[in-house]
Design goal:
Largest sheet: 9 strands, mixed
Distance between the termini: 54 Å
Radius of gyration: 21 Å
CATH architecture of the largest domain: 2-Layer Sandwich
Strand content: 25-35%
Order of helices and strands: EHHEEEEEHEHEEEEEEHEEH
Shape: globular
CATH superfamily of the largest domain: Pseudouridine synthase
Length: 295
């Protein structure tokens, strides 16, 4: 990893967390304590206050590969055939193990409930062809075999999988329907989020239509032609209408993000038929809508 230059007034661990947003704080802390972070050639404490201009060298440690662990926890199956399972993922559930999340994941539940899952995603992600953010609820497809995984992945890459979301966004979206085509890249100011405000990055297409207008909010059906990280969240934040409850992108605090993967249409590798699966709107989101004032 290329050396970094310290910034005056920053603690070493906070500086590294800001600059290396792809790594967890606990991993960075561990590297410092293990002597894998050198400041001007010497080891340092996480609390070291930088004066500015220091040369900081980081030698990341490779972690052992994660493995899914079977856990007898509930899952809701929306659709199932010989090759594909469609799960209704609740908000707050992490899809697979990662930094800070090892137990209770959707994958751990899948491993317990199903004897055979695709292994193309590795030991930590059996069956997982695509993902939903932790705070997003709704339909998620799971491949039961490697052949099914390849077939579904080809559909996602070819953009023949149709995905529809329901989103409540802050403010009054002016047009009754429209498209957002701004490219998306990682936000250099805050590495844990993406941005569509820099005019560069990976191409992204989001389409929407207004379902209902409320005082202070707009309820939308959203389709995505691409599958970029945080795409819907970054695109609507970029036009000044962050998804309700999405504090990472500037929305006011709420119990959860109002983003729900409502419907997915795909061609099942088991027989080649076109299948559409819908996940009902969660009760907490329906209750949220019921408390708003219709315009």
């Amino acid at each position: 990893m290329a050396p970094l230059l310290g910034i005056s007034g920053k603690r070493l661990d906070h500086f590294l967390r800001d600059r290396l947003g792809e790594y967890s704080r606990s991993r960075i802390q561990a590297w410092i304590k293990e002597g894998r972070v050198l400041v001007n050639g010497a080891s340092a404490k996480p609390s070291l206050l930088l004066r500015g201009g220091e040369q900081i060298e980081v030698s990341p440690a490779e972690l052992p590969p994660l493995q899914a662990t079977a856990e007898d926890l509930p899952i809701e199956i929306l659709y199932e055939d010989a090759e594909v399972i469609a799960i209704n993922k609740p908000a707050g559930l992490t899809v697979h193990a990662g930094a800070g999340a090892h137990s209770g994941t959707l994958v751990n539940r899948l491993v317990h409930h199903f004897a055979s899952l695709s292994r193309l995603g590795g030991g930590a992600r059996p069956g997982i062809v695509h993902r939903l953010d932790k705070g997003t609820s709704g339909v998620l497809l799971v491949a039961r075999s490697d052949a099914a995984h390849r077939a579904l992945a080809a559909q996602f890459a070819g953009r023949t999988v149709e995905k529809k979301y329901l989103a409540l966004v802050e403010g009054a979206v002016r047009a009754d329907s429209g498209q957002i085509r701004e490219p998306i890249t990682r936000d250099p100011a805050r590495r844990t989020r993406m941005t569509a405000r820099l005019g560069r990055g990976r191409e992204a297409l989001t389409e929407y239509r207004v379902l209902k207008r409320f005082r202070g909010f707009t309820y939308l059906e959203v389709g995505i032609g691409t599958g970029r990280t945080h795409q819907i969240r970054a695109h609507f934040a970029g036009i000044g209408h962050p998804v309700a409850g999405d504090r990472l992108y500037g929305a006011k605090a709420a119990p959860r993000i109002f983003l729900h993967a409502w419907r997915i249409s795909f061609t099942t590798p088991a027989g080649g038929e076109r299948v559409t699966v819908e996940a009902p709107v969660p009760a907490e989101l329906a209750q949220w809508l019921g408390g708003l004032t219709i315009l």
